[in-house]
């Protein structure tokens, strides 16, 4: 990516978004007018105003950092997004494509012809090309690869050989390497000859003649130590390093924990092959927490807020279908007790309370557990303890709130025994919710799935069916 | 914080956690044994084993980075957490306290006497002291402040005068400042005299004689440029800077967007007063997404997974109570239609399907919107469009899945009109869910509240009451 020194924006991002939207709407208004007058006398003035608006918008966009343009593209519906996209200078296309989310990137690439894509991609680094490649048309990728030198091509291939969230796919290749048997003075002179250092260079990598990592020289140490000292005396010889097949999210957590800016990636022979930087890690941390939220609600991550209705339907389809099945099962549970309900119709009015509170409480538990698991705080050693604690919380809530609602039921339907059944059912369903709230994410994890996956849908299914069964069952036994 | 060069851990964090837990359990087993034999002949061997275990555990802990110890403390129940805490060397207490979450920090500080707290805090910087101060006993804070020099005391006071998530509370004071009319050579010599540079120093701050920020000198430029050049020629003179009363989360987004490592904080006269660093921002990004997840489920953030049962009950109380009220309202809606249910008991079995699917679909919508709002992608300009899109998705899902479930209802109860009512009710409830899924978070935001706050509880309340009303209402009109 071309390095852009970020300047202090004059207005907030929200303001700038609002301005772009305003310009777009003004543009559209004029376009509509011109369109309506077509066939009639063609009005030159209108056309001029139209063009002026576009020029103003284009000037606005030129002042913005690629990341800000990406943000604006994310926040626009498809047609307006493409209008803005066409106004952006083509040499900036590559940087912007790297900043937008996958879903938006797809819509932008679909709007470009091969020639434009090639122009946008030609200034990118190997790791950036590898990020884009999976979404580009096959022959464009082929042509791009042809244009690279052997080393670059090898790097793109290597990056593409890893899964999207493995360290090997996240690393870049912009490393400054030095030898340990030279003086700091020599290093300083060497850096000056480079003219430019890669972004996020907080340390130099010390390698031997075979390219094996011997240590790192933090820039801080380079600056404060006597220039006559040798690199080997000053370097840190046991730095945090990563392997290309490690999980990127684990690496991100290490960056967060040890406050790293950059870190070397080595192969299994200890040879330096790339580096990770904090900016990629921050993106990963952000994406991971987002997909946790979305997964819990049974959404996949690829939906941008202005995705087409059809795309959204498909995104939400799977869990809605699962929910339909579970809701149907809950309905059949009620079906089992239709006789009881016919005799005592109050049961129909009270049963959703038992199910609803259970669902809410279960969602609280499962949210806590999923979060603790994401932070690696849950191990097999403490499962039993967690279950005990959650059961304790549920027992108190059940007796307490169950008691309240039991009292209300007694007051409304003037039946002492109905109140007791209500309290008992609520307590039992809350206990079920607590148990399932711990066990569902743990079981998913043990099966190698994401513990957040559809967690909310599943716990609600349990507490619905369970709640109806417990309440109507108790009622059938004790009230009929 | 004392700077610790992070070393590559030999084992994963999970492994280390498991080892500590194992050592703790062995320790406890021996303690239980010794305890049981008390009053009897006191067994010296047992006591020896006991001590050996603790020594082994202590050695294990000494090898760990403060951030790793913090992680282990988070993952342990209270009693074991305190056992580990007492084994940690007191000079590391301060660093570890800074790393743990608020909830865990509270439990650790409660276990320390004033003397221990003072010892732990004495090596901390002003901004770190300010982080801890609100949770320390009053007289300890007083004593700490007394021990500081005037400048440090002023800095702690200043940091404490801002809200927890304002830039002023997040900044540190470890800045290296230089003048613009000196040569890079002079700067290099000056840095060498400092012996050590603050962590995350990727740029030096250029100020005039009044301390007003004139620009920043990225270390990268210092290294690659001719040492004879003046700072003024090489510096970036319009850097991204922040004000102390800005929202920290906005600053974090700017760090993410512009790939910053550090940035100056200036007062309203342009005077340099502190700096922000990426490590604080990463923590903020993480915390923000966590509290979003928790808020949606109606949880406050202060609960650690091993919080006492009572503390957890209080944490979850408020939203459970609200849920109880909404569930009761839904129950009264059903109560209105008891007559209809008595006549056609199938309604009781079918109504939770309508409510449940609505809740699930509404949760999907609200999750999308809350997320888009957190990313600043939603502005007043596009609300109407979002509502239209969500209504479109719901309409398709309603007709489709509503049709399926209508078919099932027809098959089960052999009533053609019941099937139609079911399909219609599901479609209408999904439309309601879509509308509310967009409007609830937007309204909360307009009222100045967190849009995620209890979002899940509220949408479920709407779709439950709404679903019952729509379904039973339609049934009463068309089937009775």
Please give a structural write-up.
The structure is a homodimer of 480-residue chains. In chain A, 66% of the residues lie in helices and 5% in strands. Chain A is mainly alpha-helical and 480 residues long. Chain A has three domains: 13-165, MgtE N-terminal fold; 177-294, CBS-domain; 309-479, SLC41 divalent cation transporters, integral membrane domain (Tetracycline Repressor, domain 2), CATH 1.10.357.20. In chain A, strands 1-2-3 form a three-stranded mixed sheet. Chain A has a two-stranded antiparallel ribbon with strand order 4-5. In chain A, helix 19 runs parallel beside helix 21 and helix 19 (346-374) packs antiparallel against helix 22. Chain A is globular and about 90 Å long. The N and C termini of chain A lie far apart (74 Å). At the A-B interface, helix 1, helix 3, helix 12, helix 13 and helix 15 of A face helix 1, helix 3, helix 12, helix 13 and helix 15 of B.
SSE arrangement of chain A, N to C: HHHHHHHHHHHEHEEHHHEEHHHHHHH
**Structural class computed from helices and strand pairing of chain A:** mainly alpha
Shape-level CATH architecture of the largest domain in chain A: Orthogonal Bundle
Distance between the termini of chain A: 74 Å
Chain pair with largest interface:
A-B, 141 and 141 residues
Read across the widest sheet of chain A, the strand sequence of neighbours is: 1-2-3
Shape of chain A: globular
The major beta sheet of chain A can be summarized as: 3 strands, mixed
What's the helical proportion of residues of chain A? 55-70%
- CATH uppermost class of the largest domain in chain A: Mainly Alpha
What is the fourth-level CATH superfamily of the largest domain in chain A?
A: SLC41 divalent cation transporters, integral membrane domain
Radius of gyration of chain A: 30 Å
Per the CATH scheme, the topology name of the largest domain in chain A is: Tetracycline Repressor, domain 2
Helix count of chain A, per DSSP?
22
């Amino acid at each position: 990516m071309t390095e852009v020194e970020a300047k202090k924006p004059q207005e907030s991002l929200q303001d700038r978004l609002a301005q772009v939207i305003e310009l777009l709407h003004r543009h559209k208004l004029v376009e509509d007018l011109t369109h309506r007058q077509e066939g009639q006398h063609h009005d030159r003035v209108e056309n001029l105003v139209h063009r002026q608006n576009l020029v103003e918008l284009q000037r606005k966009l030129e002042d913005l950092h690629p990341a800000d343009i990406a943000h604006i593209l994310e926040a626009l519906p498809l047609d307006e997004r493409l209008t803005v996209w066409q106004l952006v200078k083509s040499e900036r296309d590559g940087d912007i494509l790297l900043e937008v989310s996958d879903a938006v990137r797809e819509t932008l690439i679909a709007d470009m012809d091969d020639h434009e894509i090639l122009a946008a991609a030609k200034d990118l680094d190997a790791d950036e090309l590898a990020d884009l490649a999976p979404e580009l048309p096959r022959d464009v990728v082929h042509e791009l690869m042809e244009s690279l030198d052997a080393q670059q091509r090898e790097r793109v291939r290597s990056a593409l050989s890893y899964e999207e969230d493995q360290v090997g796919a996240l690393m870049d290749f912009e490393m400054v390497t030095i030898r340990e048997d030279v003086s700091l003075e020599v290093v300083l002179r060497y850096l000056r000859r480079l003219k430019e250092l890669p972004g996020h260079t907080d340390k130099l990598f010390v390698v031997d003649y075979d390219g094996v990592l011997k240590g790192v020289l933090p820039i801080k140490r380079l600056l404060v130590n006597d220039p006559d000292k040798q690199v080997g005396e000053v370097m840190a010889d046991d730095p945090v390093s990563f392997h290309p097949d490690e999980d990127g999210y684990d690496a991100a957590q290490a960056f967060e924990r040890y406050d790293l800016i950059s870190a070397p990636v080595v192969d299994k022979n200890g040879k330096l092959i790339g580096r990770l930087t904090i900016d990629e890690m921050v993106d990963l941390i952000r994406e991971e927490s987002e997909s946790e939220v979305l997964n819990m609600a049974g959404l996949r991550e690829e939906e941008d807020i202005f995705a087409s209705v059809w795309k959204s339907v498909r995104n939400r389809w799977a869990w809605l279908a699962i929910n339909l099945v579970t809701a149907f099962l809950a309905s059949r549970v009620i079906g089992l007790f239709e006789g009881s309900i016919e005799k005592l119709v109050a049961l129909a009015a009270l049963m959703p309370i038992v199910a609803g509170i259970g669902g809410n409480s279960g969602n609280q538990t499962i949210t806590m557990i999923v979060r603790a698991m994401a932070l690696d705080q849950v191990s097999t050693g403490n499962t039993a303890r967690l279950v005990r604690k959650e059961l304790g919380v549920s027992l108190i809530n059940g007796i307490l709130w169950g008691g309240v609602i039991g009292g209300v039921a007694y007051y409304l339907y003037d039946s002492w025994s109905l109140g007791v059944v209500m309290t008992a059912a609520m307590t039992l369903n809350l206990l079920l919710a607590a148990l399932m709230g711990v066990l569902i994410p743990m079981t998913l994890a043990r099966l190698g799935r994401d513990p957040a996956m559809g967690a909310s849908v599943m716990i609600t299914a349990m507490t619905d069916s369970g709640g109806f069964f417990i309440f109507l069952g108790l009622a059938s036994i004790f009230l009929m």
